[in-house]
Structure prediction request, 228 residues.
Amino acid sequence: DAGVTQSPTHLIKTRGQQVTLRCSPKSGHDTVSWYQQALGQGPQFIFQYYEEEERQRGNFPDRFSGHQFPNYSSELNVNALLLGDSALYLCASSSALDISTYNEQFFGPGTRLTVL
Amino acid sequence: DAKTTQPNSMESNEEEPVHLPCNHSTISGTDYIHWYRQLPSQGPEYVIHGLTSNVNNRMASLAIAEDRKSSTLILHRATLRDAAVYYCILNYLLGAGNMLTFGGGTRLMVKP
Prediction:
């Protein structure tokens, strides 16, 4: 059973560019959350998608947007990249229906984004 | 959101028990206490959660103070693989997909 997968693993962009990161949730999961983790810090919540809608959003500007597809996979888009957007971007999936793992979020390995 | 306070780092010897403390003096009655850990070069992984009673699972035990203002994650026999950053998180809802608010966590180092 594949866990949460993310692509690409690493990415280098320049300031002002746009980037799209992708996430496939764990099999059977319907909810996807995105987190940003700067070096040496804990992850910060960006937003969460459920039933193709943004359900919760953290304190991030509109340059950060997302999408969830009918197969539950998700994309994170960041426009007008800034140097400060350099971070590890983590995707986490969960299921509101699986009683055995109801309280857990399963994280992928992340995408390391470097903005030059 | 209620905040948690954890030591920045702790050291342990392999095969000895480890007690990782977390203070959450402003916890509300409906806040659940969750622990996640992040191994090097990996995403965080769920460890355990609880509300009022002590909890045990295959990975660890969670001891919650009677007034709920503090809790302790207990690893019964530390292994080298347990070296990670451990995060104590309060979550007012019990349920999948709820936003997790991570702090700085405790970096656990395990010596052979």
Remarks:
- Strands of chain B lie at 9-13, 18-23, 32-38, 45-50, 55-56, 61-64, 70-75, 84-91, 106-111.
- Residues 51 and 89 of chain B are 12 Å apart (CA to CA).
- Chain B has a mean pLDDT of 91.
- The interface with chain A takes residues 32, 34, 41-46, 49, 85, 87, 94-97, 99-105 of chain B (CB under 8 Å).
